[in-house]
Amino acid sequence: KDSMTGYGDEPEVPLDPCFSFPCPVGQSCVQDANGARCEPNKPALHCTANETVSDCGALCEGKCSQLGKGPFACPEICLPPACACSPGKYRNDAGLCVASRDCPLKCDENEQVDECGNRCEPTCENAYGKVKVCVLICDPPACVCKPNYYRKNGKCVPQRDCPFSKQ
Fold it and tell me: I need a surface site. Which of 33, 83, 109, 152 has the fewest CB within 10 A?
């Protein structure tokens, strides 16, 4: 111990392994339980108006083309971070995130526009007489299945393509 400075009584602080671990240009040092290593720098995301950074990518963001077609299946996987439409906004064909009222309605085969939306649209779940509670409220216009067609996995199919269920 150096009695003049008093440094001998202080506990040793472990050095940051990245402190003396040089990485090539375009890479940064990261540390984990195995020590230090170099990884490529991740480019900063610069999102446009009506977008936010999504930590799991933009696979499940709302799209104008899906609007009014009922729930859609979205795999529960996490992709690299990406810019996705902010809540309540939908990506249009031009790649911009817009309000639903600014999405053009393009109905698919066996669909037609209903000026009061699709709240009471028939689905395969109620194709065989199952009771569906439906409040008749006029929502924004949406694509609905044409008569004698039922929504199944986002598409309008004839009743014969709906599985029969006694429940």
Answer: 33
As a whole number of angstroms, the distance between CA 136 and CA 119 comes to 8
* 46 in a structural domain: no
> Distance between CA atoms of 56 and 86, rounded to whole angstroms?
14
Phi then psi for residue 21, to 5 deg, are: -120, 90
Which tens digit of pLDDT belongs to each residue from 122-153? 888 887 777 677 777 787 778 889 999 999 98
Domain that holds residue 154: 111-161
Give the Å distances, CA to CA, from 56 to 53, 65, 72, 84.
9, 21, 18, 10
Number of domains in the chain: 3
What would the pLDDT profile of 68-99 be if each residue is shown by its tens digit?
Answer: 666 677 887 888 888 999 988 999 999 999 99
Residue with tokens 């472990």: 14
How is residue 64 annotated by DSSP? G
Q: Write out the two tokens for 21.
A: 């671990």
